[in-house]
Amino acid sequence: MRLGIFGGSFDPVHRGHLALAESCRAQAHLDRVWFIPAAQQPFKSTGPCVTDADRLAMLHAAIHDCTAFEISTLEIDRGGISYTIDTLLTIVALLPDAELFLLMGADSLVDFPNWRRPTDICRAAMPLVVNRAGEPAPDFSPLETIISAERLAEIKACQVNMPPMAISSTEIRRLITAGEKWEEMVPQEVAAYITKQGLYR
Questions:
Q1: Cβ-count burial of 60 within 10 angstroms (0-12 exposed, 13-18 middle, 19+ buried)?
Q2: Distance (Å, whole) CA 141 – CA 128
Q3: What are the two backbone dihedrals, phi and then psi, of residue 29, each rounded to the nearest 5 degrees?
Q4: How many CB atoms lie within 10 A of CB 186?
Q5: For 33-64, how does the pLDDT look when each residue is reduced to its tens digit (9 = 90+)?
Q6: 47 — alpha (psi -120 to 50), left (phi > 0) or beta?
Q7: pLDDT tens digits for range 146-164
Q8: What DSSP element (H or E) covers 34?
Q9: Cis omega before residue 12 (within 30°)?
């Protein structure tokens, strides 16, 4: 099985997340994509703005009709800071025959050498670096000192392209707090849940 691993806060999940996952699924010929909400992201000083239950409910609402997408609570169940390498090694142990692919935006490359055990991450999974249309081409130079030239060439060859989509969870939360329009940035079912639960206000 070719399995895509998509981690993040998903606070809230939005159309940009879904477009990235679908672009990776289609272009890398993935059988499944696991959305794995983090318990606590290493580079964020504070935790998610809403409860784990709310984030999971929004994810379920967002992907309920996408048969190739699933949700894993692995990081939430483990608790604490969610390190990608820990998650990948757990999945390798659970699914030793699966070929793992790590979904990541091109902007993540800058900080990638500062992640915990980045070289081992690139061994455990193939990074699928996503280039959004209209943005600068990915800069792979941060990887040059942590992986072999051969592995870097493989990563470059697997680069994924997606349509332009300037959406972020941070902006959605800001718009909700400000009482401005935000509903079209998320799936309809997610917007309905946020409104019903009064989230981010």
A1: middle
A2: 15
A3: 55, 50
A4: 25
A5: 999 999 999 988 788 999 999 999 999 999 99
A6: beta
A7: 999 999 999 999 999 999 8
A8: strand 32-37
A9: yes
